[in-house]
Structure formats: C-alpha cells, structure tokens
Write a structure and sequence with these properties.
222 residues, alpha+beta, Glutaredoxin, Glutathione S-transferase Yfyf (Class Pi), Chain A, domain 2, 2 domains, 10 helices, 4 strands, 8% strand, globular, transferase, Glutathione S-transferase-like, transferase activity, Thioredoxin-like_sf
Length: 222
C-alpha cells in the first residue's frame, strides 16, 4: 500500500496526520502544493479542493478526520484508548479542538478588536480542555493518543506566537494545560512532523497578514 499525503507546509490538519503516521511507523510520501494556486492535477482529484488529501494507491481519502481515522485503521495497534466511552469522549474533544484553529486564524489576520475577541474565545476553550484533561502526562494518562496528536499543532502554533511576541498569548495561567503542551511538544514524532524552518514560515505569515498580531512581533530574526 503506497501512501501519499498532499498538503501545504503550514496545514495543521496535515500535521495531525503526519504525527500519526510517524507514531505508527507507517511509510508515506508527502507532496506540498501552493494552496493559493493549486495545480490542475490536484483540482482533478480533490472533491472539495481542500487539503489534506491522502492518496492510497489509486484511491483518494479526503477530510482530515477521515484521514486520521484511516491511518488508525491500518495501524497494527490503535492510537485511541481501548475503552469505548473514553474513545468516544476523546473523539468529541478532538472535534471540539478543531474550532480553535478559527481562533488562531482570527488572531493572525484580525485587527485589534478581532484579535481580542479571538483570544477571549481561545482562552475559554483552553479552560474547558484544562478541566477535561485527566491525570498524567498526556490527555488519558501516560499513553500518547490521537487526541494528543490533534492538539499538537495548536500547542506548537501557540508556542511560536509566544516566542515571536514575548508571550502575548501566554497560557501559563493554565497549569495543567501548560504541562500537557510541554509534554506533547517534546515528543519526537511531533517535532519531526514539520519541515525545518517552519517557524520562519509562520513568522512571515504573521507579518504578511498585517493583522494586530504583526504589531506585537519582537524585532528579532527568525
């Protein structure tokens, strides 16, 4: 079975899939496209015109949540908890967490009012996640599960934002969440889920959007 993941370099949903593929030791290739000018061959095979897209031999799997579940299905061991209720609970929080990307986008692109509204929405969601997290290193304890992979792109982008802005979006008030974030970002499969220099790309993206967040950037080279 040949797997080819098609996406763009900053896509957080593709990053979720890459983390799972790395964790499950599944071989794959990755092809990056320009989302602002996708090639004709991509338009021809993508039902939605969106990434990520997974080619499995000559078949197409699309929608990020379907892709991650497919990766789990073809794995030798499940990256979900075994208990069916815990598994369903995890899936619910994964779906919940996906709305956080709207808040991150609003903070990157919006004016000061939009930035503040998005930050307020983000922190309200982080508080709910903090209250939902169980004991232990990761969401369910000591095992790295799909829900941890799902949160990794969020925590990584928050870490970049705080590095670039001298902690304008510090999550230190969320003690449990901060420790969880640190643990996730220390996982090798998370660290290798992005290309070298991706933080530079993200910094440039913030600059180029010219939103309120760009005015908070510290004067350093990335």
């Amino acid at each position: 079975m040949k797997l080819e993941l098609i996406s763009f370099k900053l896509c957080p949903f593709a990053q979720r899939a890459i983390i799972l593929l790395n964790t499950q030791k599944i071989d794959f290739e990755i092809t990056y496209i320009n989302p602002m000018d996708p090639p004709d061959w991509f338009k021809a095979i993508s039902p939605t015109g969106q990434v990520p897209l997974l080619k499995v031999d000559d078949q197409i799997v699309f929608e990020s949540s379907v892709i991650t579940e497919f990766i789990n299905d073809i794995s030798s061991t499940s990256i979900h908890p075994e208990d069916v209720i815990t598994k369903a609970n995890n899936r619910s929080w994964i779906a919940f967490s996906s709305s956080i990307f709207d808040d991150l986008f609003g903070m990157v692109t919006g004016d000061e009012d939009k930035f503040n509204a998005s930050k307020k929405s983000l922190f309200a969601k982080l508080k709910k996640l903090e209250n939902a997290k169980g004991d232990g290193t990761f969401f369910n304890g000591e095992s790295f599960n799909m829900i941890d992979a799902a949160l990794a792109p969020i925590f990584m982008r928050l870490a970049w934002m705080n590095e670039f802005t001298d902690n304008a979006l510090s999550i230190s008030e969320f003690k449990i969440l901060s420790a969880w974030s640190d643990a996730i970002l220390a996982v090798k499969e998370v660290q290798t889920s992005v290309i070298d220099g991706i933080d530079d790309v993200y910094y440039s993206n913030i600059e180029g959007r010219e939103g309120h967040l760009s005015t908070l950037l510290v004067d350093e080279e990335y």
